[in-house]
Design goal:
Residues 1-30, 89-99 and 273-278 have low confidence and may be disordered. With 757 residues, this protein is α/β, with parallel strands linked by helices. 58% of the residues lie in helices and 9% in strands. It has helices at 15-21, 32-49, 51-71, 105-115, 118-128, 146-151, 159-163, 171-188, 210-267, 280-313, 319-326, 329-351, 357-447, 471-495, 503-510, 528-534, 539-554, 574-587, 604-608, 616-621, 626-629, 650-654, 657-669, 685-692, 707-719, 734-737, and strands at 76-84, 190-194, 200-207, 454-458, 514-519, 562-567, 592-596, 630-632, 639-641, 672-676, 695-701, 724-732. The protein contains 26 helices and twelve strands. The longest helix is centred in the middle third of the chain and has 91 residues, at 357-447. Helix 10 packs antiparallel against helix 13 and helix 12 packs antiparallel against helix 13 (357-447).
Length: 757
C-alpha cells in the first residue's frame, strides 16, 4: 500500500517558493483596505459565532445590575455652600491672637480636612443624636431576610473564626466603638470639595430621608462657623490666661528690679541731680576742682607779689617802689610826706645851712619817717609771706579734698556700671510689663469683636429627587461591562478552541488533502444512514455524493475498491458516515458491501435495522459461510456484513489470513467495499485494517477532536501503512462554520436554498 507523509507544518512561504515567485511573497497582502476589511470580517464572524455566549453574559450582567439597582435604597443629596471670607473688616489696627485665614489653596484644603475630620463629624453626631438613628447605627437596624443574609460573604465565615483573638471590651469601650462606627458612617455619606478656583466650599450629605439630608448639611455648616468662633475664643482665652500669668510675673520682676536700682544707688551714693546726669560726688568734684584752681592761682599770685615786693624792698628805690607796686595808701601817704620832708630839708639846707637846728629837726623827722616806712614795708612783706603760706595751705587742703573726691568718683563710676545694668533690667522689665498690659487690653477688646472667617452663602434645601442610585447609568455601565466581558469570554473561548474548524486548517497542518465536510443532521432527523435515504437532496446527502465523487476521481481505474473509514477516538461519527456513504453508493447503482469491523462496539446493525446473529466474527472463525453472513438493506439494496458474536479476539481475527481472503473475495464481487474501523488510538485493530485497505478516509469531528489527538491518530494510520486518501470533517454545524474566514466556509449554509433539509 502506498503511504503518505505526515507534515508537521504547512508547506507555504518557503524559501523555494519565495525564490520562484519573485521578491514579493504571494502570502503577504499590502492592501490596507483589504486587511482592514478582513479584520472587520473576522471580528464580525467572532461575534456571530459566540453571540449566544455574549448575549447570555449581557442578559445576566444587565439583569443582575438591574436587580441590584432597583433593590438599592435611594439616597437624597443636600448641599450647602460655605464661602471663606477673603475681605476683612479692620476696626482696630492691631494684630489678632488667631491670625485671620489667608484663603489660598492650602488653606482651603485645610478647611476641607477639618470638615471631613472625625472630630467634627462626632460633633454633628452628638448635636443631632445620630447614635439613635438606625440609618447610621447598624446595631439598631432589623436583621436582613434570610436569603439576603445567605448571600452576604461575611456570613459564610464561621462564628468561631470571627471570635478568635478578640479582646474583651468594657461598656465604655463598646460605646466608643459604636460612636466610631456611626462617625465613619456619617463621613462616608459626607462630601466636601472646593468649588473650582473660588473661595467657596461645597458640603453635601447623602441620606435616605431628604429632610434629614438637608438638616445634617445645614447643621454641619452652622457647627463649622460655631467651631471657628469657639476656636478663636479658646485661643483668646488661652492667650489672656497666659498674659495674666505673665503680667503678674513681669509686675513682680519690674518692682524687684526697680527696688534693686534704688537700693544700689543709695548704697553707692549715686543719687542723681535734677537733670539725672550728674551725681553729688561729681558736683563736689567739679566745685573742688574750681576752688583748687582758684587757690593755686591765688597762691601763685601771692608768691609772685611776695617775690616782687621783696626784690623791690631791697632795691635802691625801696619803699617807693613797694608803694608803687602794692598801691598801699599808707605807704603812699608816708612816701608823700617823705618827699615833702626831703623838699623842706632841701629848702632849709639852701636857706639855713647844714648846721641849722630846723634842718636837723627835719632830717630827724625824715629818718623817723623812713624808719616807719621801712617798718611798714617789712610788715607788708610779712603779711605777704603769711598770705603765701595761707594760700599754700588752702591749696594743699583743696588738693587733698580733690584727690579724695576723684577717688570717690572713680568708685562711683565703677558702681555706675552695675547701676546701668540694673537700670536696663528694670527698664526692660517695665517695658515688657507695659507692652503685655497693652496687649492684654487689646485682646480683651478683640474677644468681643471676634467673627468667623467664613459664611454660609447658600443653605441646603430639601432635595426632591434622589441622587443615588442612578439606575440609567448603572444599567448603561452594566450593559457596556457585560458586553465587554462577553466579547472577552468569546475571544478566550476562541483562543482555547483546541479542535480543527476547517479541513483547510488540517491540510495546512498535515499536508493531507480535504475530502470535504459532512453537515450535522437536524436534531430530530433520525440516524445519518436513514437521513441520507429520506432526504436525498439534503446537504448531508450532497456531502456523501461529494465524498463519492472525490473517491472516484482519486481512483479513476477502479482498482482501489476497499475503503476504510477510520478516526482517532470514538464519537467522531465514523460509523454513521460509513453507513451513509455505503447507502449512497448503493443508491447510485454501485455494487457495495458494508462491513462492520468494530467487533468491540457493534452499532451498524442497529443503524440499518438488521439482525446481528451471524456476521464478520463467524465468517472469520469459519462457523458461518460468507453468503450466510451477508444481509441486504431493503431500502437501498446495500449488502451488509454485521459484526457478529465471535468468541475470538478482534485483533487476532482482523489480522488473520482469513480477513485477507475475505477482502479478496469481496473485491471480485463488489465495486465498493466499505469497512467501518474502530478508532486507531483506542484499539489496535484500526491499524491492522489500515494496512489491508486500498484507501483510508480519515474522519475528524468538527471543532471537538483535539488537534493533537487528530494528528496523532493520522500518524498511527500512516505509520501502519494506510493509504490516507484524505480527511473528512463530520458533524459540521454549517451555520457556525459559515461564520469563519476559511476557504470552505459557508459551503452548504451559504447555498442552503439548493438543499431540502
Amino acid at each position: 500500500m502506498a503511504t503518505q507523509e505526515l507534515q508537521e507544518q504547512p508547506r507555504r512561504n518557503t524559501p523555494e517558493s519565495r525564490r520562484g515567485s519573485g521578491s514579493a511573497s504571494p502570502g503577504i497582502s499590502y492592501d490596507l483596505s483589504a486587511s482592514a476589511a478582513s479584520a472587520v470580517r473576522r471580528t464580525t464572524g467572532l461575534l456571530r459565532r459566540h453571540k449566544l455566549l455574549i448575549g447570555t453574559v449581557i442578559v445576566l450582567g444587565t439583569g443582575l445590575a438591574a436587580l441590584v439597582a432597583f433593590r438599592m435604597t435611594p439616597l437624597y443629596t443636600a448641599e450647602t455652600l460655605i464661602m471663606v471670607e477673603h475681605r476683612k473688616n479692620t476696626v482696630l489696627n492691631f494684630e489678632g491672637v488667631v491670625s485671620d485665614m489667608t484663603p489660598d489653596i492650602s488653606a482651603l484644603q485645610s478647611e476641607v480636612a477639618i470638615l471631613k475630620s472625625p472630630a467634627f463629624a462626632e460633633k454633628v453626631v452628638a448635636k443631632l443624636k445620630l447614635m439613635n438613628d438606625p440609618e447610621f447605627n447598624s446595631a439598631l437596624r432589623p436583621p436582613p431576610p434570610g436569603w439576603l443574609a445567605a448571600l452576604n460573604p461575611r456570613n459564610w465565615i464561621p462564628d468561631s473564626w470571627k471570635s478568635g483573638g478578640t479582646v474583651p471590651l468594657s461598656p465604655e469601650e463598646v460605646e466608643r466603638n459604636q460612636m466610631t462606627s456611626v462617625v465613619n458612617a456619617v463621613l462616608d455619606n459626607t462630601s466636601v470639595r472646593p468649588q473650582g478656583r473660588s473661595y467657596v466650599i461645597a458640603v453635601s450629605f447623602d441620606s435616605e430621608d431628604p429632610r434629614k439630608a438637608s438638616l445634617i448639611t445645614n447643621t454641619m455648616a452652622d457647627l463649622y462657623l460655631v467651631d471657628q468662633l469657639d476656636e478663636k475664643f479658646k485661643a483668646s482665652k488661652r492667650a489672656t490666661q497666659w498674659l495674666e500669668e505673665r503680667l503678674a510675673d513681669l509686675r513682680k520682676e519690674a518692682q524687684t528690679t526697680g527696688d534693686a536700682v534704688e537700693k544700689y544707688r543709695t548704697e553707692h551714693g549715686l543719687t542723681t541731680s535734677s537733670n539725672n546726669e550728674s551725681t553729688v560726688v561729681g558736683q563736689q568734684l567739679s566745685q573742688l576742682n574750681t576752688d583748687y584752681i582758684l587757690a593755686r592761682t591765688k597762691r601763685q599770685e601771692a608768691e609772685t607779689k611776695l617775690r616782687d615786693v621783696t626784690a623791690m624792698a631791697n632795691s635802691p628805690r625801696g619803699a617807693s617802689a613797694v608803694g608803687d607796686v602794692l598801691g598801699s595808701p599808707l605807704i603812699q601817704a608816708l612816701r608823700e610826706r617823705e618827699v615833702d620832708l626831703q623838699r623842706q630839708i632841701a629848702d632849709a639846707t639852701n636857706r639855713y645851712g647844714a648846721k641849722h637846728p630846723m634842718l636837723q629837726a627835719l632830717q630827724s623827722q625824715l629818718r623817723d619817717l623812713q624808719g616807719q616806712i621801712k617798718a611798714d614795708v617789712g610788715k607788708i612783706v610779712a603779711n605777704l609771706s603769711n598770705e603765701v603760706e595761707l594760700a599754700k595751705g588752702r591749696e594743699q587742703g583743696l588738693k587733698a579734698s580733690l584727690d579724695q573726691a576723684e577717688a570717690k568718683q572713680n568708685q562711683q563710676q565703677q558702681a555706675t556700671v552695675g547701676l546701668r545694668t540694673l537700670e536696663r533690667d528694670a527698664s526692660t522689665a517695665q517695658a515688657m510689663y507695659e507692652s503685655l498690659l497693652t496687649r492684654s487690653q487689646q485682646i480683651a477688646a478683640q474677644t468681643d469683636m471676634r467673627q468667623p472667617d467664613a459664611r454660609v452663602v447658600s443653605e441646603a434645601s430639601i432635595p426632591l429627587d434622589p441622587s443615588q442610585p442612578n439606575r440609567k447609568l448603572i444599567l448603561l455601565l452594566a450593559l457596556v461591562a457585560s458586553g465587554t466581558l462577553g466579547v472577552l469570554l468569546a475571544m478566550l473561548r476562541e483562543r482555547s478552541d483546541g479542535g480543527f474548524r476547517s479541513p483547510h486548517q488540517f491540510e495546512l497542518a498535515t499536508g493531507v488533502r480535504s475530502l470535504g465536510i459532512v453537515p450535522r443532521i437536524p436534531r430530530f432527523g433520525g440516524s445519518p444512514a436513514a437521513y441520507v435515504v429520506d432526504k436525498p437532496i439534503s446537504a448531508f446527502a450532497e456531502s456523501m455524493q461529494n465524498l463519492r465523487t472525490s473517491l472516484l476521481l482519486a481512483n479513476p481505474d477502479g482498482r482501489h475498491r476497499v475503503i476504510l473509514f477510520s478516526s482517532s477516538v470514538p464519537g467522531e461519527g465514523k460509523s454513521s458516515v460509513a453507513a451513509a456513504f455505503a447507502r449512497t453508493c448503493a443508491n447510485a447503482g454501485q455494487r457495495t458491501i458494508l462491513v462492520d469491523c468494530d467487533l468491540r462496539r457493534k452499532s451498524l446493525h442497529e443503524m440499518l435495522g438488521l439482525s446481528n446473529n451471524r456476521g464478520l466474527s463467524e465468517v472469520l472463525a469459519g462457523t458461518a459461510a460468507l453468503e450466510e453472513a451477508i444481509q441486504v438493506d431493503p431500502r437501498t439494496g446495500l449488502h451488509v456484513i454485521v459484526a457478529g458474536h465471535g468468541p475470538s479476539l478482534p485483533q487476532d481475527a482482523l489480522g488473520s489470513s482469513a480477513m485477507h481472503q475475505l477482502l479478496s473475495r469481496l473485491s471480485v464481487n463488489y465495486d465498493r467495499i466499505v469497512l467501518d474501523s474502530p478508532p486507531v488510538l483506542a484499539v489496535s485493530e484500526g491499524k491492522l485494517l489500515a494496512a489491508l485497505a486500498d484507501q483510508t478516509v480519515f474522519i475528524v469531528r468538527w471543532g471537538m477532536t483535539k488537534r493533537g489527538t487528530a494528528m496523532a491518530g493520522l500518524k498511527e494510520v500512516i505509520e501502519a501503512g494506510g493509504e490516507v486518501v484524505g480527511v473528512l470533517f463530520s458533524q459540521v454545524d454549517t451555520r457556525r462554520h459559515a461564520q469563519y474566514e476559511f476557504p470552505d466556509s459557508g459551503r452548504y449554509h451559504g447555498y442552503r436554498r439548493y438543499y431540502a433539509n
